[in-house]
TrEMBL record:
Keywords associated with the record: Cytoplasm, Methyltransferase, RNA-binding, rRNA processing, S-adenosyl-L-methionine, Transferase
Species for this entry: candidate division WOR-3 bacterium
SMART domains per UniProt: rADc
UniProt superkingdom: Bacteria
Residue numbers binding S-adenosyl-L-methionine: L35, G60, E81, D106, N123
A GO term from the CC aspect: cytoplasm
Name of the gene: rsmA
UniProt-recorded name of the protein: Ribosomal RNA small subunit methyltransferase A
Stretches that traverse the bilayer: none
């Protein structure tokens, strides 16, 4: 937990680069909100547990508050930034570092296949949080650990437990492939411009193997999403409507389908998916 946070922020650095950054106007469509408080940046980088042999992918390098710390600890840093204005300024600011590549690209189109196994860090734009999480899941074989700053409500969704209102399809699919824990909350005052909500830093570890073996991962994801498609309806009604399977057939699966999706554990969803697939194949 963060303790004894000061009420005021440190002043911006002097010099040409500081003036450029001070005059920088964020683009609302990119959801830009830049971390400004150095001690929080220190804690985020520390949470990555970097060694001199580690290579790091930074999602959205922004004004470089994390980047300048990463290049001093990691073997190599790939800083992906969608805003060309920031890329040009960061190349000027961090020109002395030979272990840094600043890439002007949308992270969702960036191919990790050519990189060594990496660690990941980033302050994630709230508007694309889901897309980035699923991007990381698709590329889970290329990274070990990620430290992400997310909107608090979104972080609660990936950390949720069964039976809670935050628990959903994202939670289930995410937990099959990764494990996560909350690090700390970050107040709006430590970003510029200030977001309207709290942020939460989360540590995510990619599992070497899925927590449970699933024969068809695409079908599993489809079942989970359909089960949550209308939260107030039972599993029986949601699965009947989406999979077009007769209700009498579904009730022979040996699973209580009068329950709602948010009451099922990950293990129960795996069993449900496997039995549904067997039912479809035997039809």
């Amino acid at each position: 937990m963060l303790r004894h946070l000061p009420k005021s922020l440190p002043k911006m650095p002097n010099g040409a680069f500081g003036l450029k950054m001070a005059k920088f106007r964020p683009k609302k469509k990119l959801g830009q909100a830049f971390l400004t408080y150095p001690p929080i940046a220190d804690q985020l980088v520390t949470a990555l547990s970097l060694s001199p042999e580690d290579e790091v992918l930074e999602i959205g390098s922004g004004k470089g508050i994390l980047t300048e710390r990463l290049v001093q600890k990691a073997k190599y840093v790939y800083a992906v930034e969608i805003d060309k204005r920031l890329v040009l300024q960061l190349k000027e600011k961090l020109a002395q570092y030979q272990n840094l590549e600043i890439i002007n690209q949308d992270i969702l189109t960036y191919d990790l296949a050519g990189l060594p196994r990496i660690k990941i860090i980033g302050n994630i734009p709230y508007s694309v949080s889901s897309q980035i999480i699923f991007y990381l899941l698709r590329n889970r074989n290329f990274w070990d650990i990620a430290v992400l700053t997310l909107q608090k409500e979104f972080a609660e969704r990936i950390l949720a437990k069964p039976g809670t209102k935050e628990y959903g399809a994202l939670t289930v699919i995410f937990n099959l492939y990764t494990e996560a824990k909350k690090l700390f909350n970050i107040p709006p005052a430590y970003f510029k411009p200030k977001p309207k909500v709290l942020s939460t830093a989360v540590l995510i570890k990619s599992r070497s193997e899925p927590l449970f073996q699933v024969a068809d991962e695409a079908f599993f994801a489809r079942v989970v999403k359909q089960a949550f498609s209308q939260r107030r309806k039972t599993l029986l009604n949601n699965l009947h409507a989406s999979l077009r399977i007769d209700k009498d057939e579904l009730q022979r699966l040996g699973i209580d389908l009068t329950r709602r999706a948010e009451t099922l554990t990950l293990a129960e969803f795996v069993v449900l998916s496997e039995r549904l697939q067997g039912l479809i194949k035997s039809a």
